[in-house]
Design goal:
Bound molecules: iron/sulfur cluster
Keywords: 4Fe-4S, Iron, Iron-sulfur, Membrane, Metal-binding, NAD, NADP, Plastoquinone, Quinone, Repeat, Thylakoid, Translocase
GO molecular function: 4 iron, 4 sulfur cluster binding; iron ion binding; NADH dehydrogenase (ubiquinone) activity; oxidoreductase activity, acting on NAD(P)H, quinone or similar compound as acceptor; quinone binding
Enzyme class: translocase
GO cellular component, one term: plasma membrane-derived thylakoid membrane
Number of strands: 7
Helix content: 25-40%
Main location: membrane
Distance between the termini: 97 Å
């Protein structure tokens, strides 16, 4: 009899444990039902990269003075600057320039230190290729401007959570062309310019 009661007790305990585990699992499911959808229907929908996104590098051939600073500051000495010395002008002439994006770590050092600002980081992140050698971009490929997500008629651009206006949690619900949170660099510059006379007045008064 005692043995039977012990078996019933064990069975009841296991049933309670199982119900507890099912409840825990379902609580996670119900919790996710309240959250915003994070699914992006790529490639029909694409997130707009953030402003300081470090994507594929853009290069302006005419601006480059072949100084090779980009090579020296690169942690892996990656950019290949091919130049010849022009004896008449006593200046370097750039022949070819290339960066291998199969090796580049997109640190942005070369862009930061280039004295003529001929390098810049774009928002292009789709660099997949069947052959890794195709990732070695020459100056022609580097000079191509990327197609913006917002300009592509085949794509629905979506904002990241960081760029959603205050209170909006679902990027799918955002009307096209609505104002994003935060200020554009141009707006910050304009504000700084506007505050300059006020600061100058304060300084002259003191
Ligand atoms: S640092 Fe700029 S200007 Fe100098 S070689 Fe590199 S890309 Fe050209
Ligand atoms: S982004 Fe960094 S790793 Fe890539 S070429 Fe420039 S300095 Fe080198």
């Amino acid at each position: 009899m005692l043995n039977f009661l012990k078996q019933v007790g064990d069975y009841a305990k296991e049933t309670v444990q199982a119900a507890k585990y099912i409840g825990e699992g379902l609580s996670v499911t119900f919790d996710h039902m309240k959250r915003r959808p994070v699914t992006v229907q790529y490639p029909y929908e694409k997130l707009i990269p953030s402003e300081r996104y470090r994507g594929r590098i853009h290069f302006e051939f005419d601006k480059c003075i072949a100084c090779e600073v980009c090579v020296r500051v690169c942690p892996i000495n990656l950019p290949v600057v091919d130049w010849t010395f022009d004896k008449k002008t006593k200046k370097k002439t750039l022949d070819h320039y290339s960066i291998d994006f199969g090796v580049c770590i997109f640190c942005g050092n070369c862009v930061e230190y280039c004295p003529t600002n001929c390098l810049s980081m774009t928002e292009e992140y789709e660099l997949a290729a069947y052959d890794r050698h195709e990732l070695n971009y020459d100056n022609v490929a580097l000079g191509r401007l990327p197609y913006k997500v917002t300009d592509d008629p085949m794509v629905t651009p979506m904002r990241e959570l960081a760029y959603l206006p205050k209170g909006v949690m679902d990027p799918h619900e955002l009307p096209a062309g609505s104002r994003r949170a935060g200020k554009l660099p141009q707006e910050i510059l304009e504000e700084l310019e506007a505050s300059k006379p006020a600061k100058a007045e304060e300084a002259s008064e003191s």
